[in-house]
Design a protein that fits this description.
This protein is an alpha/beta fold. The protein has a domain of 104 residues: Rossmann fold (3-Layer(aba) Sandwich). A 5-stranded parallel β-sheet has the order 2-1-3-4-5, sandwiched between helices. Strand 4, helix 4 and strand 5 form a beta-alpha-beta unit. The radius of gyration is 34 Å and the shape is rod-shaped. The N and C termini lie far apart (90 Å).
Length: 196
């Protein structure tokens, strides 16, 4: 699969990871209908591989996975700088308080208990969309600032050049004035008048 590039407001990438294929595929279809770019994985090692390649903005991650459990997947994802800002959502049947603490310590942002309320999924995705829009706007402003800084630097360079030209002209005018004064002195001394 092709490596992912920068995300846009209209195509936020989401990774769905669940060993229950029916649940994973249902959530994937729902997200695609909502306009998200989605990939699906059914075990821990595949989830890590897909996340590195796809670089999703959000991962819906089951805990009880074959290969590597969701806690370890989350910890490993958090170790990669390019995935540290991804929103990790634990989507699991584990509902005890102990599981909530483990979810939090593994680096998840949210903990949803199966069957997850679709309104709660929508709320998380809406927050994600807002964050992505703000990030996109911030990037646009940063690029604009860079452009303005370049333009300012160019203008300062042009102003410096103009200033050097003006200084040279002033120097030439002063030299001409000095020469005129010298000529006037010579003329005055030739006429016998005292120089001024």
């Amino acid at each position: 699969m092709a490596s992912a590039t920068a995300q846009t407001d209209s195509c936020v990438r989401v990774l769905v990871v669940d060993d229950n294929r029916d649940a994973a595929n249902s959530l994937t279809r729902l997200l695609r209908v909502r306009g998200y770019e989605v990939r699906t994985a059914y075990d821990g090692p595949t989830a890590l591989s897909e996340a590195m390649d796809f670089q999703p903005a959000c991962v819906f991650l089951d805990i009880g996975l074959p290969g590597i459990d969701g806690y370890d997947v989350a910890r490993q994802l958090r170790q990669h700088p390019e995935l540290q800002t991804a929103k990790l959502v634990a989507l699991t049947a584990y509902s005890l308080e102990e599981h909530g603490r483990r979810v939090q310590s593994a680096g998840f942002d949210h903990h949803l208990v199966k069957p997850a309320d679709p309104a709660e999924i929508e709320r998380i995705l809406e927050m994600l969309n807002q964050v992505m829009k703000l990030a996109s706007r911030t990037e646009q402003l940063a690029q604009r600032n860079i452009k303005l800084a370049r333009e300012t630097k160019n203008l300062l360079g042009e102003t410096q050049k103009d200033l050097e030209e003006v200084k040279q002209e002033i120097k030439e005018v002063k030299e001409e004035i000095r020469e005129v004064k010298e000529e006037l002195r010579e003329m005055n001394s030739d006429n016998g008048a005292a120089p001024r």
